[in-house]
């Protein structure tokens, strides 16, 4: 307590719990308050330092030397606490151990490596849109935002068909586990062993098709670019971070268009705008809201020294709507250039699957733009609370055929 | 098959005439020589930093950068500093007796405070994970191995270095290697003769990666000595730098955006990305450092001047795509699929 009071002299203090249901339901007011309080805010509830302005969030993301990931990118500090599963070789690692897994995965998921999937994914998106156009009303989350990634991504990884229903709950739990052990974590805990056992089993070489992302990871291990011990953990990263994030990214862009019909017309007029539209939706909604870092040394941020070993909570979502960086930040606007948003992170941990997500979105939006004149919201969207993700459970839609 | 990476370390400088110093286009990533000092006979070390003091792009051991010298020549040098210092690059340059442009310019003309253009860093010689490494350096080929050694040491790997050169006085960074004691074997040719590779390497075995950088005869000898070692053991990097098809330019150039039916002029002070956006044409980007790959754009005509950290040499030469946040043009006109 004395420490808190002492800090209060120079450092703004906020008592809110950012992981409480009311803030997960509507995070914008807390984000604005944290941004306006200062470049660094002390969150008394969790004894962590929060960054909510674009400038500081961006600076912390790129500065891997002072803000490490290896002690975990959630609230839990791996220096003192045992992680719930073996740490990720990508997300929860620092150079030099981070180098080889990152290099291998970046090549497998890079834009040039994805060209071979483009035609198939565009055809799959056309087929999906054709199917759902037959329904008068639908829920955009299961019918589109979940259906499309689940249709194309597990195939691209080379996963077997059986058990794919484990992917979404496993990923949802992994992103909850970056937060505190609130009911979002404890309620799911009894099911985690079952989900995790299935996911871990899928990472083995004999479960993966040879030409998918998974098989290519194992082939890189055969070439010595990774060790054979690292290969299954790199596959696990794909399965953890590759599904829920894109689902909620797609849900966000559908939500944005359903509530901004004028912007949808711009994509219909110019399908090339689909790529920018997705990134603008990622900026606007920030499907990944937050990540933590740990200070490797006493680090000065905006006049405050963050002591070595302390956790820093970066509000990506708040940075993506910081009026110091963006004009009319709360507006979803295809006329703006969303480049530089931190929805995929920035620096050497920047989302290695971002090109996969963009290609999925481009395929789905292109198919929708061709066939759908208007996306009409027919009910209140329902949020799904998650300690890290900005997620939708339901998005009632009527698609008006072109 | 041993994996062989081409390019880097020291450019020959042969075959390209120097152009008069004319400064470096401002939109090109620019670094300043913050220090220059002699490290051995014929070897100078340069420290490079951004004039603004901002971070430099991240890199990994084995990476090289393209330096666009004030005389218009582009040369490639391995990074041999400390990646935990995000504000400083270190390179070392050997004076090439046959070279005409690059190394002579760095040795004789370049001074602290001078600015040079920067491309990359790129890495075609990455350090793969292993419990044991054998490093073999010939002369200035020590440069890419220095950060690898630092890293191997940090990870607690079992490693040794065999360092050959003509004479002791020509072999740079011996002082920095001294603290490693018996792990490092320094063997100048005038006192020790040719490197006895087979004896030093020992019997072929698994679980070892051999990294070698140096002149062509050394690489050939190491390849021969490793013939019976398991596949993927040997990683090499050659000195020979691929000559760019035309010197880097600092005049304005035209970019035709074919799909949009418009043409923009890119002046030296702006990026292609900026010029495209100014013309109201959509182009997504993210890192603006040529590392994330978001702004990849198909090239329909003209020769790009690649400055990114992504493309391999053969992909650069293909010239069919570019990253418009950093890359520019070698020709008067580029045609892009935008």
UniProtKB/TrEMBL annotation, chain A:
SUPFAM superfamilies found in the cross-reference section: Cytochrome P450
User: Its Gene Ontology molecular function terms?
Assistant: heme binding; iron ion binding; monooxygenase activity; oxidoreductase activity, acting on paired donors, with incorporation or reduction of molecular oxygen
Question: Mind telling me which InterPro entries this protein's record contains?
Answer: Cyt_P450 (IPR001128), Cyt_P450_CS (IPR017972), Cyt_P450_sf (IPR036396)
Its keywords, alphabetically, are: Heme, Iron, Metal-binding, Monooxygenase, Oxidoreductase
Is Transmembrane among the key words of this record?
no
Reading the lineage from the top rank, the first entry is: Bacteria
Which family is this sequence assigned to? Belongs to the cytochrome P450 family.
Name of the protein this chain belongs to: Cytochrome
Q: Which organism is it from?
A: Prauserella muralis
